[in-house]
Amino acid sequence: YTYNFNTQRNGLSGPEEMQLARKHFGISITQNSYGLAQTYLCLLWDKISYSFGEANNLDYLSYTYPQMTHVFAVGNEQGACDKAFGTTAARSKSAIYVGAVNIKGEISDFSSFGPTDDGRIVPTICAKGVGVYSTKDGNGYASDNGTSMACPTVTGHAALLSERYTQLNPGAEIPSALLRGVLANTAT
Fold first, then answer.
1. What separation, in Å, do the N-terminal and C-terminal C-alpha atoms of the chain show?
2. Which residues of the chain have pLDDT under 50?
3. Is the dihedral of CA 174, 180, 184, 188 positive or negative?
């Protein structure tokens, strides 16, 4: 198979662009709302592995830049594949995966979840992703649903925690593993 998943117009993959942004601009957090569409991959589920796509490249990037945190929307395909181990194509071991909950904190009927095929719990954390008021094309606003609507909340919280860490530890950046642990273990 030839896959052209997440290749940008400039020919670079997501992790390659992230690496350039880290080198040139010093970014420490990335937010990502894209992934494999499981609905179309149900019959190939057993062929999707850690090395498929960019999970291993993302983990290599995280190893190379341990202060760089990657936040991903976990996906909106809760019922996509009956035989799937979980309902997420998440493979990276170093990313924060965000699910969507409603105003009561209940998992939405669309949010993907795990466990992953290697047994990891996914999502890492959830945020409101149902009825989120946000911008839309044409300088307007509308209510929308999705894990991509929940992801910015978690990314914003991660940015605030990162900023506070640097205030308390001048010149230091929070290690991604610590930031992931704080987010996952202090959420209600």
1. 43
2. 1-5
3. positive
Are residues 176 and 68 in contact, defined by beta-carbon separation less than 8 angstroms?
yes
Neighbours of 21 (CB within 10 A): 13
pTM of the model: 0.86
**How many Å apart are CA 54 and CA 28, to the nearest integer?**
19
What would the pLDDT profile of 34-73 be if each residue is shown by its tens digit? 766 666 666 666 666 665 557 778 888 899 999 999 999 9
Q: How far apart are CA 75 and CA 86, in angstroms?
A: 12
DSSP per position, 78-147: TTS-TT-SSS-----SSSEEEEEE-TTSPBPSS------TT---S-SEEEE-SSEEEEETTTEEEEE-SH
Q: Measured between alpha carbons, how far is residue 101 from residues 20, 113, 132, 156, 181 in Å?
A: 33, 12, 11, 17, 20
Strand-pair partners of 30 = 70
**Residues 14-24: tens digit of each pLDDT:** 888 889 999 99
Instruction: Please give the single-letter amino acid code of residue 68.
Output: M
**Residue 91 CB-density burial (10 A; 0-12 exposed, 13-18 middle, 19+ buried):** buried
